[in-house]
């Protein structure tokens, strides 16, 4: 987030990006910074909950499945 270091929104979007890449610790750090900058940022709050859940293997599998399914077309989702 070198281009906007004081933006809570930039940190939260960066955190979600890291979360989707499977970098849960880095995501938690970025989302923690987003919450520090803007404690009412709901996107950062939901991301932090997701990052904390992903420390557990079963939650990580479920999250990966849902993100995988979300990237598919609706017809492919129904087929699975």
Helix content: over 70%
Order of helices and strands: HHHHH
Secondary-structure class: mainly alpha
Query: In angstroms, what is the radius of gyration?
Result: 14 Å
Tell me the number of helical segments per DSSP (H or I, 4 or more residues long).
Answer: 5
Let me know the average pLDDT. Answer: 89
> What is the straight-line distance between the termini?
37 Å
Q: Assign an overall shape.
A: elongated
Number of strands: 0
| Low-pLDDT runs | none
Architecture overview:
With 80 residues, this protein is mainly α. Helix content is 74%, strand content 0%. The chain has five helices and no strands. The protein is elongated and about 45 Å long. The termini are far apart. The mean pLDDT is 89.
Give me the secondary-structure topology.
Elements: H1 8-20, H2 24-37, H3 42-53, H4 57-70, H5 74-79
Helix pairs in contact: 1-2, 1-3, 2-3
Q: Brief overview, please?
A:
The protein contains five helices and no strands. With 80 residues, the protein is an all-alpha fold.
């Amino acid at each position: 987030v070198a281009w906007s270091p004081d933006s809570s929104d930039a940190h939260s979007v960066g955190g979600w990006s890291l979360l989707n890449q499977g970098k849960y610790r880095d995501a938690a750090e970025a989302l923690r910074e987003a919450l520090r900058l803007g404690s009412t940022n709901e996107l950062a709050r939901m991301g932090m909950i997701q990052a904390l859940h992903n420390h557990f293997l079963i939650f990580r599998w479920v999250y990966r499945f849902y993100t995988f399914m979300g990237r598919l077309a609706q017809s492919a989702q129904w087929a699975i």
